[in-house]
Amino acid sequence: MKQSLTALLLAALHMIAAHAKQPPNILFIITDQQHAGMLSCTGNPYLKTPALDSLAATGARFELAYCANPVCMPSRISMMTGVFPSRVGVETNGKSKAKMMPDILENSLGRVFQQGGYETVYGGKSHLPMSLEDFGFKNITNDGREKLAETCAEFLRQPHDRPFLMVASFINPHDICMMAIEDAKHPGNIPGPKELVEAMALPPGMSREKFFADVCPPLPDNFEIPAGEPEDILAADTQDFRTHARTKWTDEQWRLYRWAYARLTERADAEIGVVLTALRETGLDQNTVVVFSSDHGDMDAAHRLEHKSVFYEEATRVPLIVSWKGVTQPGLVDRKHLVSTGQDLIPTLCDFAGLPVPSALKGNSVRALAEGRTPSSWRDTVVVENGSSRMVRTARYKYVVYASGARREQLTDLVADPGEMKNLALDPQAAPVLAEHRRLLKEWYQQNGETLDSKYVVTGKDSNE
Predict the structure, then answer these.
(1) Cβ within 8 Å of residue 227, ≥6 positions away
(2) Residues 373 and 410 occupy one common structural domain
(3) Which residues sit opposite 413 in a β-bridge?
(4) Do 129 and 274 reside in the same domain of the chain?
(5) Does residue 294 fall inside a structural domain?
(6) Count of H helices and E strands in the chain?
(7) Which of 334, 354, 379 is the last residue of a domain?
């Protein structure tokens, strides 16, 4: 009874603060390796994500949100700084060569909000080349699982004398990475971590035959390797376990992979639910902007691939939900505007908080879109990087260029071929579209103050033609 009265009192106090028009709190929730389709509100029938679905119900979900790089460290650096990973010298998860200039750190997410009077805290996985303090955050826990959820909930239930920016960075569904890694080491015997072992388990009492007949997700429609796929597709991530899975796994292994991936995503959703419950019970949801995304996706058996790092949609396109109860348009689904989570996160959060966006940053705020308003202008292209190639996405097409290989280019018509099964870069009839996207890639780098390495510039004499 006493606890209930305390919760009611806290909720009342938070409601009063919200109506006093103080700047909103910001809660940024990140998962690790969750592709854009891994939400039940997207129509995915193979998992249930009630916590994240509840956010989508009160806010806007962006279907065309792309990470800056489909690998953990470079993607997170981009979200924290608003600049592209190649500028700071981090394009893979390998040994860091980060070149963090003082002006980049000065304009990083935590520092911008610190200077704006916010309390800035970060919990969970960071995977950054420098300390959280360098990026302007106080670390409240290194745990990325249940303890993170509990720590964040405890923070929310404390009294706050100023607005806060809290980043809650959950590790899952990243544990799915270990399935191929461990199977390559110990074929047929995957020892852990325990969360993965639990996720791979069949429903209690169900036979293997019934499981694969009635319950386990089927192979995706784009399971096979695309015609004309560049031979350097895995150049950015050359570890043997990916080749092992692509060439050795049976259809049942791939389906079990999809099953486990869904269960791990549900685990992350349940942990996020603990945080959102605390937000609502305290009344903080009335004056808190909640943004949810993931650092990158997972291939989820598309093209006989698991893990990330490549430029297929499953690895590069990420979930993005922006919700402020009573402000954002409930249930809005934006299927039109290209969003870069690396470039657009800081401008968006600054827009909601009423803080100036650092002039050096080139991203856009999605606030107007999330509120159902039409922005005065919007980008026509979005770019993604990795350690061996570059990608530009337009309204209809995706163009990828590799640093080496006999087939250096890949062009896909995402309207006619959403599963990315045909490489139009090999089709002479697509030559005008190919040339246009080479140009668009170069122009994007020029316009955004970034540098396109010459190895990604293709001329007629060294093209696929």
Answers:
(1) 421, 422, 423
(2) no
(3) 397
(4) yes
(5) yes
(6) 15, 14
(7) 379
Contact 344, 366 (CB under 8 A): yes
Scan for tokens 């209809």, then name that residue. Answer: 396
The model's pTM is 0.93
* Residues 285 and 391 both lie in one domain: no
The count of domains in the chain is 2
> Do 356 and 396 sit in the same domain of this protein?
no
Tokens of 285: 């949801």
Q: Locate tokens 């019970």: which residue? A: 281
pLDDT at 9 over 60: no
Which residues touch 396 (CB under 8 Å, ≥6 apart)?
413, 414, 415
Rounded to whole angstroms, the Cα distance separating 253 from 232 reads 25
At position 396, the amino acid (one-letter code) is R
| Confidence band for 61, pLDDT divided at 50, 70 and 90 | very high
235 vs 231, 295, 450, CA distance in Å? 9, 20, 23
One-character DSSP codes across 36-98:
TT-SGGGT-TT---HHHHHHHHHEEEETTEE-SSSSHHHHHHHHHHSS-GGGGT--SSSS---
Nearest residue to 275 via CA among 55, 439, 18: 55
| 130 vs 445: CA distance, rounded Å | 26
- Quote the domain boundaries for residue 403: 383-462
The structure tokens listed for 331 are: 């249930």
Domain end (from 379, 413, 431): 379
Looking at the structure, tell me whether residues 50 and 73 fall in a common domain: yes
Distances (CA, A) of 190 to 211, 247, 267, 301, 416: 19, 18, 19, 18, 39
The tokens of 433 are what?
Answer: 């579209």
Query: Which of 46-50, 73-77, 102-106 is least confident?
Result: 102-106
